[in-house]
Amino acid sequence: MNKKIAMVLASRDFRDEEYFETRAILEKKGCEITPFSDKKGIAIGRFGGEVKINKDLNELDSSVFDALLFVGGGGAVKYLDNETSYNLINLFNQEKKVIAAICIAPVILAKAGVLKGVKATVWNDKKAIQELENNGATFIDQKSVIHKNIVTANGPDAVSAFCKDILLTLKENCV
After folding, report:
1. Which of 14, 62, 100, 124 sits at 20 to 30 Å (Cα–Cα) from 157?
2. Which is the CATH superfamily of the domain at 4-173?
């Protein structure tokens, strides 16, 4: 497929399988993955997985990538729910590029304002669902949901469906 994906994960407490399994599936399909985080160094997952981060979010150039993907886990909202993330999300959306988020990370998309009028899913937590709805999204209780250029998924068990939907959306949006 040869598409470039900026994969954003928190420097602490990202969900390991949402990063490692998603990356493996997308790379197997020919996508080129570049990890980004809130800071350079070694990002540590909830279960101890380590990812070397050479670039922080301030160095993410949207013109280089076809998609922006946010990994979930407890650290996502703590470290990534901020203006830098919001600006990147809105830039990718304005450029009609693929935006994807899994687990709790769709909350970041909602707070960035790109889920207004959009069908989306999120980790099955009342607060997270309420956050989506408060920001104009229509919550859909499914593993993965596609709405135009946006793909959301509800957690680690959804990785396979999430990747399938990302690949489909990349194919449709990046011709």
Report:
1. 62
2. Class I glutamine amidotransferase (GATase) domain (3.40.50.880)
Q: Alpha-carbon Rg of the chain, whole angstroms?
A: 14
| Contact by Cβ (8 Å): 8, 84 | no
Q: What residue spans define the domains of the chain?
A: 4-173
Walking along the chain (175 residues) 10 residues at a time, the average pLDDT comes out as 93 98 97 97 98 97 97 95 97 97 98 98 97 98 97 98 97 69
| The pLDDT value given to residue 175 | 46
DSSP 162: H
- Which helix (H) or strand (E) element contains residue 37? none
Specify the pLDDT at position 172. Answer: 80
Question: One-letter amino acid identity for 39?
Answer: K
Q: Which residues of 32-44 are buried (b: 16+ CB within 10 A; e: fewer)?
A: ebebbbbeeeebb
